[in-house]
Amino acid sequence: MTKLVIKDLKVGVETDSGMTEILKGVDLTVNSGETHAIMGPNGSGKSTLAYSIAGHPKYTILGGSVTLDGADILDMSVDERAKAGLFLAMQYPVEVPGVSVANFLRTAATAIRGEAPKLREWVGEMKNAMSSLNIDPAFGERSVNEGFSGGEKKRHEILQLELLRPKIAILDETDSGLDIDALRIVSEGVNRVREASDVGVLLITHYTRILKYIKPDFVHVFAKGRIVEEGGPELAEKLEEKGYADYVNA
Amino acid sequence: MSINSNLLERHDSLEPTGREEKWRFTPLKRLGGLHLNATEVRSNTSTIFSGPSEGFSVRVVPASEVSPRSQSDDVIVARVRETVRDCTLVEVNRDAQVKDPIMLSRKNLGSAEFSRTVVVAKSHSQATIIIESFGSAILGEEIEILLEPGAKLDFISLQEWENDAIHLGRHHAILGKDSEFNSVTISVGGSLVRLLPSVEYDGPGGSANLLGVYFATSGQHLEHRVFIDHNVGHAKSRVNYKGALAGEDARTVWFGDVYIRKEAEGTDTYEMNRNLLLTDGARADSVPNLEIETGKIAGAGHASTTGRFDEEHLFYLMSRGIAEDDARRLVIRGFFAEVINEIPVEGIRDRLMKRIDDELVRVGR
User: Fold this and answer.
1) Strands, DSSP E only, in chain B?
2) pTM (2 decimals)?
């Protein structure tokens, strides 16, 4: 049983006019096996939440805490957070020229698991994961994210989710830029991981359509740097009808 | 030869003062006096070959037997040609297919040395030549590489000198009709290395692919001045050099001059240089230069970038559990991979990757 606890988290970024606070006190707890949807308009700070939990250097923690089973995440380096069991599927996965997908995945799996996976088993594991995500095996030889289409990048993120098996997965707008087929494939991948493990999921999205495939247990509405409303799946349906206007103009 | 070409005018033959365009990036004080007529430099042939030679020969012959085949107004080349008595001559037999690389090496040259090497790849031959350099040296050299019609030659030069070495060299290839020249220039050692890899054509259909890898650390000056003279029609050239720099006063200079003459219709050329600055205090100059006298070409272009290490790459890899040092190494290896993967000899690819890893450990990155 894993528990990610975010308490009164305040985060800022350095801009030309000084430090700008983006997250203004976020409280959220994600337990193993739970799926939380965080929904909100553009610019509300959803991605900032995702990246500051993962440890992106652009963001400065101004206050509050994030713990994973009691351990202070904010005190850890980026790789330590991943080894502790956090995973961030990025909205804009980074292109890393000259580093092949196969090499990258194996290096990452070795780091996360603490030992190099046995080659034969690894090859099989990778092959299965790729084929269920409809990824061409030749993909392994390509450079990480370089020249990938939007859909390929997202599938590659979910491939990593499947192979790295985190305790808590943060999916940052994984649905953006996907056509309906790709959305289904990606969602099925996430659901496979949810079924096969006890992963806690923090699903960040602007639209409700991915929630038709990945059913959340909790829905949180994010606006102006904090959670402004919480509820069950029915809250997503309300948002589908009314949009975010009420929250933005509040 | 066109009188009007800016590119050719640059190659004047005066003893340099440092103000000349072609010398203004080079610290003349660090040339060991090789550029000064007053400095006495002995003629030698330290480049040695050992092993069986099937399909080719390596001989030392009087310089008079192999007179220079190309024009140059570089002062070092002029002094080398005046001084050198004996010359290393490598000949690949006509139609020979030499499977194993022909390894030439030199190590710890005792005193300042001028040397000439001439490579002749005879008609329709195929071979790989590797020249490796280790230890300390003050060396001025000219290597002329002649490809007869239909010849294919892979030519790899490795500058893995000690950090006190001075090496000034011209590596000039003349490509016969339908010949293919693939060169890799690797400069990782030396205090000051200044190389002039150049190409001209002696018939249509020639194809030159010039790759380069350099890695300068504190105090090193590594300079490469590529010159492709498209002097005939329907020839092709590709240039791709990649360099990394780390440490105080690490310095690299890359010039890529491509001259497409009036008669060079159907030319197809592209040159690229990318530099990766790993620390503050390092400086990379990158100057691509294309001069075109005919519009009837197949293609011509160039690209040059010099950038800092991208922290986003690091974040992405680390967010997958990869430790910072390993992530950094992966990214830098990745940066070089595009060029290194094209090196036709596996042993050299592995050796170079290892050397780059060692350099990274040494500079603490």
Assistant:
1) 42-43, 48-49, 56-62, 86-92, 102-107, 113-121, 126-134, 138-147, 152-159, 166-175, 180-187, 192-201, 207-217, 221-230, 236-246, 251-260, 268-277, 283-292, 299-308
2) 0.86
